[in-house]
Amino acid sequence: MSDSGMGAFWANLKALPRTFLGSFVRHGAPTSHRARSQSVFSNVFLHIHATRVHPHSLRLTTTWGLGVSLVAQFLILTVTGILLMVYYNPGLDQAYASMKDIHYVVPAGRLIRNIHRWAAHMMVFCVILHMTRVFYTSAYKAPREFNWVLGMGLFVLTLALSFSGYLLPWDQLAYWAIVIGANIAASPNEVIHAIGLPEAFNIGDIVRRILLGANHVGQDALLRFYLLHVIVLPIAMVFIIAAHIWRIRKDGGLARPGGTPSPAGKGAGSMTPAAQPPSAAPSKTYGLMCLVKGRSPCTGQDPDETVPAWPALLRAELFVFMLNMLICLVLGVFFDAPLREIANPGVPENPAKAPWYFLGLQEMVSYSALIGGVVVPTLAVIGLALIPYLDREAEPAGLWFSGARGKVVTFWSMVVGAILAVLSVAIPVNYGWLRNWFPDIPQLVIIAINPGSLVTLAYMAWSLIVIARTKSTRLGAVALFSCFLVGFVILTYVGTYLRGPNWDFYWRQSDWPIH
Amino acid sequence: MPSASPDSLDRRVKWGLLLASLATVALLIYSVLAECVWPQWRMLRAQYAQILKAKATDDRGRALAEQFEATIQQNVLPALHTVDRCITCHPAVDDPRMAGEKQPFRTHPGDFLRLHQPDTYGCTACHAGQGRATEQAAAHGDVEFWPSPMIPARYAYAGCGSCHTHVLVPSQAVLRRGRDAIARYGCLACHTLDGGGVKLPGVAGAAGPDLSQVGATGYDAGWYEKHVARAANADGGNGPSLRPIGEPARADLSRFLASRVGAPSLVEAKALFHSLGCRGCHKVNGVGGKEGPDLSRVGEKDPGRMDFTHVPGEPTLANWLAEHFRRPAAVVPGSQMPVLGLTEEQIDGLTLYMLSLRHSSIPETYQPKDRIRAERFGEREFATDGETLYSTFCAACHGASGQGMRYPGLPVSPAIASPDFLAVAADAFIAHTVQHGRPGRRMPAWGEKEGGLRPQEIQAIVAYLRSMSGLAAPEPDRQPARWVKGDTTAGNSLFATYCASCHGATGQGAEGPALNNTVLLASASDTYLTETIRRGRRGTVMAGFEKPSTVHPALTPSEIESIVSYIRTWETP
Amino acid sequence: MSGRLDPDPISRRDFLGLAGLWTAGAAILGSLVAMARLPVPRVLPEASTRFRAGSPLAFPAGTTTLLPERQVRIVSTDRGIAAMSLVCTHLGCIVGEAPNGFACPCHGSKFDAQGRVIGGPAPRPLRWLHVSQAADGALVVDTAREVSPDVFFQPMNVG
Fold first, then answer.
1. What is d(CA A400, CA A406) in angstroms, rounded to the nearest whole number?
2. What is the pTM (predicted TM-score) of this model?
3. Does CATH place domain A48-260+305-347 in 1.10.238.10?
4. Residue of B nearest to A398 (CA)
5. Nearest residue on chain C to A98, judged by CA atoms?
6. Could you tell me which CATH number the domain at B477-573 has?
7. CB-count burial class (<10 Å; 0-12, 13-18, 19+) for B214
8. pLDDT (tens digit, 9 = 90+) per residue, A206-243?
9. Which of C24, C35, C45 sits opposite A318 (nearest CB)?
10. Domain at B266-377, CATH from 3.40.50.1370, 3.40.50.1100, 1.10.760.10, 1.10.287.180
């Protein structure tokens, strides 16, 4: 036995390079479409793609490459973030100094930090664009409802990641942005105080204490935000991204009008499990699926209409990735990420501004922290997440603005949304608000009735009017989304450019008084 | 939607990929060059390597040139939470051969580095600036968001104030007398001082120690007796020659020597501060008046947070301070600070002193002895002779020679060195006044523990006032404190006629001092009041009522007593 | 696209596609190299390995001086000045003085007064360090630079 055993051992040893490679590349060299498709199918990293895709999905105008951009940005952020962790030190005494060291002496440190900062901004920007794109092309509709919800989760996570990273440099900008943020989180106190409940009901204080580990932003807050930023949120993000991408494939690939002859034919866009005649749906689309009882979603991807994912899709993705890398590099090489004075708890920045994507909220927060900072954003996120469940109209997916009527509704909703948003700033700036008119007004009224809450209600009313007039829930959703989008843009603009020291209104930054 | 055929789409993606990748590669190469080839510090170090090579004439020079590395150099000082990379571009600070080179390659002037070695103190502890930065503008702090830019070279001595917060400095006049004494007694024949001093040739064995830092290092208190003894033992012209030095000159000398801490221009600037009476309104390190802002850390102010709209020139702290001394109310709208009419030289000195008020938090092991003595044991940072105390705390309002001052928009401050005043004011009265001030008026109560003066310091000020007027003591007063029993009704009408125009209808003070002040009425004796009215104050608008003048007739003693009695009615409101 | 399931050799003449692919590969590789450079520190967050031991006059010939905070022993002889490291050559503990020289508290290495191994696991003698002079004349010891035990530094221009 030992003889043949030794022989086998020798043979195995000699075959080692071949068998190792074979176990690693299971389908031979990727020189044929079949080998490539098998690779795409069986490789853990590639199998998030379908083996074949419809050319429509590759078109720029279908997605603007935003989803892939977001993945690319997340990758870039992960890699640069890990590199920054090599030198960053989340200690009160060292955090700021380590930023300076990263900037001045760490090899490639300045570039890596710049890229990390700019990529984070790009990611927030793209996540909003991505959501807008998905909304206007009706790509949230059945069976993609839950993927839209996952997307909302990713949207919130992206903001949370960006915001938690904001504190880490421990400079003035960071410190005061987090002070504001933490106090917004504590704003339910406003109501508790206003209606005179005992201190034990101060949910806000509890929330703030969980967030900061103290009553004030200090070492514990820095450590907690660090933990959130480098461990908790990224892990959550990775899992949800995986689910999000997985569901794209499982929900039948990208939504596209050509492949969805509505209503009875095949195609994912219009498919609802009940409406689909069982005979029309293929019983098996993917090899893996044969293990599972029941039908798989219909993809409507006839082989003859599609192109192999390798190379067309992979190359397009690589292109988008390189494009993002290029933009990050251009920003990183030529523009330094901001870093102000070391945090000084005694001297607030004036104006102390949150990061730009929260400035719309800060604008509303300037009337009521609870409504502007907690209620409206929470309602907006919940409302957005519920859109696919409230608008279940069957219609061609992948069509921008759902056709001509949708374009008209979008246009007028944006006009209405813009006017209301401008009014919500212009009226308080020019004429003051309730407290200026009725100095003795109860605090609860001030909390409840403020430009933020009124505009939100007006947007909702407008959307209901559109639903009633057009008899279409989709158009109502379009109206509401368009209003919120344009309102967000306008308030963000106001908060970024037109608000100066003491949150006073200024047309130009050059008019700011020196403080 | 423009639809493209899969093939043309494919081509576009391929071109896009190629171009994006090429641009990325190009940018990567650019950033490598920007980081590894072009930075200023690399070029400077390459330049310095050439200088080192050129100057390598001996073994040590060659070894230094050989060891020189083209990498970032730094002093890491964990105790100070400091990393200073200044020596990357200023590598010659400890190389005496480079005294003639241009910046940034020049030797550090003076022998500061002997006492403050860069590997113990770093650079920014004294010079400020951003030690971690490796680019000139950022390192010198000439950038946004760096609150402590470098102290300008011409004010470099201000850097000493970061740690040496309590250097003992007398007034300028005292300092000047000390310097005169040094010259008069020929001390510099043997000693050196502040880089000057001639060692007379031919005087064998006469080289005395350098006096530039004796205030910091300490010196033998019995130096005079020893000099005398040695002079007596010396044979002929060989020993130290010494003329007898009188007691007052020795006091001047010892105050002068105590201020020799190796920072002459800082001491000069602080002496100026102690001569203009600034502490009358401003606190420094806890001692001074409350009228103006506390100046203890004014040198650490962040220029990024200051208003430069009314300051011409560069937006630097030094410029702001200088302009503020020229036109206080124009730079800080609403400022109560009077225009002091300073010369440019004085403004420069005061600016230097203000910049030195930094008061860095430093670990105990780094704290200078005088700072510990002052902060722990309450030792003063001003000389406590009457002259220095007067000019430090009183001169701004009462004038350098006690002549009284009148700043536009502010009530007049009395001439307290007036012989008429000192003739009738008892020491206890003056001391009481200094101690309790004039509530409601600008005169603070200096006897308060917080920021005030100690009893013996107030005594010294009183004694100095006496010496200014040349009167050793007030005229003896045999009356009790209260003896006047005049007619208050008559006094009322007399006061309204003759006094109210200057002292206010209810004695609240206007042109003249307030008379209804409780502290004044509590401490002034009747004799003081009657005598003041009788004699007046020469040199002021207060003329004596004993004799008639163009605006009033002479008052009889009983009329004067009526006025005093009337004034006394304000004592109990 | 007919032969979807057949082995379908792909044209190798797709120059544009390959160029794009290779450039992208180069870009990614380049950034990886740049990133790999990052963890190699350019400056160390600790005091320099070169330290000033003071004026040569502080070490008259015939004396040895222990600098405990630097873990160095300065030996001054007629031939000049040398510095011996007190870091054990076995695993980096600090040796203490023993009757015959030095002994390491961690694993029992023993050295004689010249730093030669006389017992224990130490593989080599205690290290002698490079001594030089700064521009202002002060002695400079470099704990990162070893010299042979018979090298003595002769200070010059002392005063």
1. 8
2. 0.85
3. no
4. B1
5. C45
6. 1.10.760.10
7. buried
8. 888 888 888 888 999 999 999 999 999 999 999 999 99
9. C24
10. 1.10.760.10
